[in-house]
């Protein structure tokens, strides 16, 4: 049926909000607020303090929290098992110009060595954000703070907050972000050759590619292995070499036992040859891997060695994103070399010296993930407005394969549901003897529990096959994951095939197809 379009009209297309977050949900909304600058005055507590607002705390006074022994601390009562506790507080120190302050938790049954850290300064307030999950309920707990280097300093706290989320509430908040950041509303308008809208046209819509990069490491074991290749490309839209482009793999003797000018010449030759060979073929370069933990080049070439690497890489391949990449950044906060603030400090140092640093790589080698801490750290990185990638995701082989699957799903959901994360790479290159820590399949490509999780999420995070019919406005609306789509529209004896893309944004994307 055709309808003439009036000369002027206002048509408002609405998508039902229930696909975003249930109108029946009355639980807490996660607050992603974070700060990386030191402020003259602390901000107000998140969640108005959360349970600190209703639960009496020992030693609290107007300007902060005083000392428990040698440590400022909170006494916490009746904490529950498997609850996501999100913690934040503002920290100021005296007695030293700076200090790495660690928050820890002690219950009757367990110790959490680190639930959050901050690089605090004298004379201004720094924001610590973290969290924890208990394996057993606790009637009485102590949340306390220490300077990680043991130096005797005064620690003052302000605007503390502790907010609990049940697992179900956490999942609702994750899904809300997925629906608002990984999907987009779309409306297809169908008209005839005269521009009149067509009611009753049938259509099929199929997503043919995904915008979000989700991939895995590969090794030379994939070469000539057609079953492996078919299995890989069926699932992933991104790949990274496991070790094949690392210096020791391509030139096992180059750079060893060299110093000074000879070492610098070898490095320059390495960067020049590699980036010239593959210019514009890679979207990312991890220029100097794990520089928060290792300073081989700085010891031999001076403090600006890494700066030179990045400058050279950018000149040779200016369109490729240059990444820092390190471990124990989101996996834990106990490693003082790679806390979120240590990472940000090093990144800013490079940027200050003119490095075109465009990406944040977080290796993500987990054992048991602390999800509130992971999210808090990602919140801090989000303040930098740089793309964040989880670059080497796996779960420790110290756990059984079922546990690996459970924790892998938790990590992947956490990454995909954080708006600052632009891609996820698994560290699951398959070798005859297995994988680095975690395999998705056996050598015959039969899924292991981790592989089942990946296949389930790949299916969940893709728009299913859609069939629709245009309404009285000649339109059909749907809500789809970002990516490329193929559409076929039929009305009477006419058929039109086309393609379109959903690339993000809060506004509904409109497409018009003529028959």
From TrEMBL:
Entries under PROSITE patterns matching the protein: GH10_2
Keyword Ribosomal protein: no
Domain GH10: from-to ranges: 199-457
GO biological process, one term: polysaccharide catabolic process
InterPro entries to which the protein is assigned, alphabetical: Galactose-bd-like_sf, GH, GH10, GH10_dom
Keywords: Carbohydrate metabolism, Hydrolase, Polysaccharide degradation, Signal
Pfam families xref list: Glyco_hydro_10
Signal peptide residue numbers: 1-23
GO molecular function: endo-1,4-beta-xylanase activity
Source organism superkingdom: Eukaryota
Family of this protein: Belongs to the glycosyl hydrolase 10 (cellulase F) family.
PANTHER family according to UniProt: GLYCOSYL HYDROLASE, GLYCOSYL HYDROLASE FAMILY 10 PROTEIN
Name of this protein: GH10 domain-containing protein
Organism encoding this protein: Lupinus angustifolius
């Amino acid at each position: 049926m055709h309808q003439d379009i009036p000369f002027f009209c206002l048509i408002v297309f609405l998508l039902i909000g229930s696909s975003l977050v249930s109108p029946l949900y009355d639980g807490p909304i996660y607050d992603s607020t974070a700060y990386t600058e030191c402020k003259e005055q602390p901000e107000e507590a998140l969640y108005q303090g959360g349970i600190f607002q209703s639960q009496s705390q020992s030693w609290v006074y107007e300007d902060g929290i005083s000392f428990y022994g040698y440590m400022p601390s909170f006494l916490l009562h009746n904490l529950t098992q498997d609850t996501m506790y999100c913690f934040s507080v503002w920290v100021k120190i005296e007695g030293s110009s700076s200090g790495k302050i660690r928050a820890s938790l002690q219950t009757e049954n367990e110790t959490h060595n680190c639930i959050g850290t901050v690089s605090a300064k004298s004379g201004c307030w720094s924001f610590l954000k973290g969290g924890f999950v208990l394996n057993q309920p606790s009637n009485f707990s102590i949340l306390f703070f220490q300077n990680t280097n043991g130096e005797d300093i005064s620690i003052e706290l302000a605007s503390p907050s502790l907010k609990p989320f049940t697992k179900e509430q956490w999942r609702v908040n994750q899904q809300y972000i997925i629906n608002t950041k990984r999907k987009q509303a779309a409306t297809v308008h169908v008209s005839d050759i005269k521009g009149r809208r067509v009611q009753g046209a049938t259509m099929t819509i199929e997503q043919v590619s995904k915008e979000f990069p989700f991939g895995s490491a590969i090794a030379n074991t994939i070469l000539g292995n057609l079953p492996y290749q078919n299995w890989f490309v069926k699932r992933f839209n991104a790949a990274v070499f496991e070790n094949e482009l690392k210096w020791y793999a391509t030139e096992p003797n180059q750079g060893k036992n060299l110093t000074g000018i000879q070492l610098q010449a070898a490095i320059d030759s390495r960067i020049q040859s590699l980036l010239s060979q593959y210019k514009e073929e890679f979207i990312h370069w991890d220029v100097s891997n794990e520089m928060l933990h290792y300073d081989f080049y700085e010891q031999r070439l001076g403090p600006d060695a890494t700066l030179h690497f990045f400058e050279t890489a950018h000149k040779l391949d200016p369109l490729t994103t240059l990444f820092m990449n390190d471990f124990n950044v989101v996996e834990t906060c106990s490693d003082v070399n790679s806390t979120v603030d240590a990472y940000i400090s090093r990144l800013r140092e490079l940027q200050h010296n003119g490095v075109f640093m465009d990406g944040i790589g977080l290796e993500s080698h987990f054992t048991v993930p602390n999800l509130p801490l992971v999210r808090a750290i990602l919140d801090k990185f989000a303040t930098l407005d740089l793309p964040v990638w989880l670059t080497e995701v796996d779960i420790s082989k110290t756990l059984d394969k079922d546990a690996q699957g459970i924790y892998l799903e938790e990590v992947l959901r956490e990454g995909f549901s954080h708006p600052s994360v632009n891609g996820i790479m698994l560290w699951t290159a398959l070798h005859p003897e297995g994988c680095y820590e975690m395999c998705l399949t056996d050598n015959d490509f039969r899924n292991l529990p981790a592989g089942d999780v990946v296949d389930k999420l790949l299916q969940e995070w893709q728009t299913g096959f859609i069939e629709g019919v245009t309404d009285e406005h000649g339109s059909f609306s749907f809500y789809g994951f970002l990516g490329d789509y193929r559409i076929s529209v039929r009305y009477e004896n006419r058929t039109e095939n086309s393609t379109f893309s959903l690339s993000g944004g809060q506004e509904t994307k409109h497409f018009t197809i003529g028959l």
